[in-house]
Fold each of these.
Amino acid sequence: MSEPVTALGGASADNGIATLAEASLQGMISLRGDLTASAVKKAVTSASGAAMPEQGRVTAEGDRALCWMSPDELLLLCPYDAVGETLDRMHKALAKSHALAVNVSDARAMFRVSGARAREVMAKLSPVDLAPDQFTPGMFRRTRLAQVPAAFWMPEEEAFHIICFRSQAQYVFDVLTVAAQPGSSVGVYQE
Amino acid sequence: MLILSCPVCGVTAEETEFQGGGEAHLKRFGPGASEDDFESYLFMRENPREVHFERWRHAYGCGKWFHAARCTTTLEVFGTYAAQTTEPPKDLRDKISEKRPNWTWREFK
């Protein structure tokens, strides 16, 4: 059995205006199906323990979370080691539904951007209104970071979690590093 | 810059998050159609000044297709609506008429 590793081996940088870090291994299960069907709702809420997220939002419960990706797609986050068992439970619960649940943990990379200027770093890279009253913890946004697709949310104030494709992890880390380089603060969200 | 609202996921974003899909409400003419119909289906496109209807895809977001009505001169977006339709909804056409009286676009007005 090969040893699982993250895309960049836990790269980090904290000499800039925000702290960047590649997250450790994160279990992710992608679910496609009719999100209004009660069997699908039940399968994901019981597998995650979190409530069904509303459009464009994320719900968390302990170390698990449910992210709303599109009207027919959810992303379930859970500990990396728990993916197999969680997926088995979901497959059993979804046996009679037209739905697809797949382990995508190793196809994605995850980053954390934190600090008082984290909003600024993200705003430099994505076409999203990140003003403190417009983008708040609990919201989940699929968009782009510079030239690649990414999704992010705020687990708490002054911190972002970013999910991107694993093959683009180096690119994402590099653009984040540039956006957070020392002295590059714009001060747009601070008085 | 165009600012579009995706009717599928409710996100409002500028055009770099989307991908244009060309003219809306095309009727397909395939095998068995006359050559004139096939030619117009394949090559003939509207190139209007002002009111225009287009298909767009929320490429970096939810990934879904939708329709948008916009003005080609001012980039004003009159509205967006679901992809699963063969014509612009009545309320949107009325809204456009208020802002651009006497507009016509292909068979719609």
Amino acid sequence: MSLYRTELRRLVKRRFTRWTTVLGLLVLAAVVAGVFFTNQKIDAAARAQAERSAEAQWQRDVQSAEQYRAECERVKAGGTDDPKQFPEDCSAITPPPREAIAAAWFMPATFDFRESFGDTLLPLAAILALVGFIVGASFVGAEWNTGGMMNLLLWRPKRLTVLLTKLAALLTGLLALAVTTTALWFGSFWLVATLRGSTAKVTSGVWQSFALTGLRGVALAVVATVVGFALASLGRHTAMALGGVVALMVVGQFGLAILLDLAGVKFAEAWLLPTYGAAWMRKTVTLENWESCEATYFGSCEPEKLVITWQQSSVLLGVGMAVLLVAALWAMRRRDVA
Amino acid sequence: MPAVLEIEGLRKTYKSRRRGTRNALDGFDMRVEAGQVHGFLGPNGSGKTTTLRTLLGLIRPDGGRMTILGHEVPAALPEVAGQIGAIVESPQFFPHFTARDTLSLLAGAGEVPATRVDEVLELVGLRDRAGERVKTYSLGMKQRLAVASALLKNPRLLILDEPANGLDPGGIREMRSLMRDLAESGMTVVLSSHILGEIQLICDSVTIISLGRRVAFGPVEEVLAQHSSGAVRVRLEAVTDLPTAAEALTRAGIRVTGQPDHLMLAGVDKPATVTRLLAEQGLYVSELAPIAVDLESVFLELTATAPVPGQHRQVDQSTKVGGAGQPGTTGGGWGA
């Protein structure tokens, strides 16, 4: 227990942890501020202004249609008709009906909590995962790099206990940050919706759905943290984790995407990691193959589809995390500390 | 006296596909008795740090037996780790933490009372600089901090690898005095160092390692005596009597080398014999001085690492013992 408390203290004391956390929180705050300042509440005045804008737009359309018809009639009377420029019958040129120009088109942007909040949980999860990965990698990588791990092992020779206690302290810190930040995220956007949009139709079912998505975001951050920790522990350097991810993204993702595209592999995105991250957060991701046609009962052509579910993503993320963690533990147990 | 630390037949082999096999420790033995300050000496690359790392569970041995405070290690390390304070090689600390934070975190991990932090900071002379980040410290200050971290547990066995590295002369003297005080308080200290003058002054006993094997061990005086040549310098009241004296001594079986104003004698068991022999000839000595050997010359002789003009000795060129039982100089290293 003393080791756990000490590692928790060490985690919080580290400048890197503090600065990375602050940076992540600043990015999230900037997102909230951006949404706040680019949206506004729809009141009677805004609706009236939108109605006036729609009316003005319709008037301009009527005027334009009349000018066009007059031009058509003048050209046809002159005998210099260009069939590509005007229709056969100039009377076919009519302005749109008034109801076709909706006032909603001229409404200012507004934040509808029920419609839009779910989309904001994806960047929240991405930032938390990034912070978790970097802090996790640095927490163990810097310890190896500066000799702190060797010092600690002289005090606590049980290597696996040391590594797992470090991980437990790291995950405690990460969970405290992720849960607090997610709660603040919910609160901030509720405030944005209240002041700059609408909180209508947010039923208990909607709350439940958002809460589950938020939880999946926290779980994603936990996975990223463990992966960063395990990679840096394997390489005994922070750079091992960061370099590994850069290599994975450049070679494994962009390179693989280009290769799969050149090879004409169908559902190429199914081989790329971000697809599974998105499926985890959105519950499903539907991939479409426009090269093939599946006829419908109505005679139309639908693309072939592949649905990737959050359950499939959970297997991939879980197995990947477990493999890396077991490898890190095995290396910790077996390798010399030279 | 009971042994605090015992090593028998310790082996550690490094295998490399490209460079072959290297025996870093090749059946190494060591014994340190309670309450001693024990010097652990060896040329660069001889296996000193590998021995200490293996002893402390940082490296897995390939063979041999080790005990600390009567417990087999590395199996029983968790039980005895609280009684061992150690620094291995150069001091390494997280650069952005202060000395106090560094020690406080170690104390927390080892369940040592927080009050002990200030005690050891005082002991190593870092009290007034304890609030500064370690990255601002000089090598000597880092060394002091490392010693402080090793003393934090108030250990029964203190293992220090090159503790005088980077210390100023005053610091070296303080360190020497600290080691003596610790040993007097009952702590056993194992000291690895290349400052042989210091080792000779501080240590009760020594172990000398070369190419992974022990080449000498025992109390410092015994090791020096074993390698003393029995040389004695003799001066007489009258320089003109030197030839007569040389003749008398040679007849008695003593090897004599004549010098302009004195004689150098070799193979003398008891200097009193010389006085008696010369007195029988009516010759009276004005000086009879046994030529003492120091630890440095014994070390250079035993490890065959004395510099030779015109030659550049390589790191792994030192004495290898065992095998045919004959000491000799060999080129070790990868593939040896």
